[in-house]
Amino acid sequence: MHQSLCRNQLETPRRFEELGDRDLRELFAGYDLMALGCLIAGYLDETGKLLGRDLVQVDDEALAAGWRRIDEGLRTAFRWEGNWNRLPIEFERWYRPRETAKPAVASAVAENLARNAPLLVQAGPDPGLDRAGDQIKRRADEMWATANRMLGDLRAGRLDPQVEVVESRLRASGIAFREGMQTMETIALGPVRASAETVG
Predict the structure, then answer these.
(1) Quick one: which of 4, 194, 37, 199 has its CA closest to 102?
(2) At residue 19, what are phi and psi to the nearest 5 degrees?
(3) Distance, CA of 181 to CA of 94 (rounded, Å)
(4) How far is 37 from 35, CA to CA, in rounded Å?
């Protein structure tokens, strides 16, 4: 995944297709891609320390400066003046086929990662990383189970009808929901076309 991010070849970025406003889609997709880049670089950096070998070479200051430049570009190019507590959600957008494309800042994210957090090892099977991956998979399964229990509680009316309670449960299961939404997008719209660099 790190290599695909650095080469701007990630086929299934989260594009937030359910958001009705184009600028909102670009903002959310851009920040999500930046967060993914940070997560992957940080994960590989920390994993390398645990394994006793360097997996990536992270220039923390330069990487952070690159994220700030991308953030400034996003804020300049895409604006939304609506109510952040009432985002325009249109799940039916998933049922209307359209051209697929990477988020507008995908190439900038790729350049920042490739320049300031390059991979030092050849991607491939790795026993140490594979063992860690099994632990992550178990955690992901737990998150999905939590999300499913929450949805069951909501449908059955067992969840206390308070915003704080619902938000805390959603945050606790946020990773599972994010991955689920990304899967829904991919099923509905397919992966990003290889030739597409930005959203039109």
Answers:
(1) 199
(2) -80, 130
(3) 10
(4) 5
Sketch the domain layout of the chain as residue ranges. 2-189
How do residues 60-98 score in pLDDT, each as one tens digit? 999 999 999 999 999 999 988 888 888 888 888 888 888
Q: Binning pLDDT at 50, 70 and 90, where does residue 153 land?
A: confident
Do the Cβ atoms of 192 and 12 come closer than 8 Å?
yes
Q: Is 82 strand, coil or helix?
A: coil
Distances (CA, A) of 88 to 25, 111, 178, 189: 10, 32, 18, 20
Query: Which pLDDT score is estimated for 181?
Result: 81
Long-range contacts, stretch 43-49, CB < 8 angstroms, 24+ apart: 44/2, 44/119, 45/117, 47/128, 47/129, 47/132
End-to-end Cα separation, the chain, in angstroms: 25
For 154, half-sphere exposure in the C-beta direction (CA atoms, 13 angstrom radius) is 13
pTM, to two decimals: 0.73
Whether the Cβ atoms of residue 54 and residue 120 lie closer than 8 Å to each other: yes
Tens of pLDDT, residue by residue over 114-139, are 999 999 887 666 666 666 666 667 77
Mapped onto helix, strand or coil, the DSSP state of residue 108 is helix
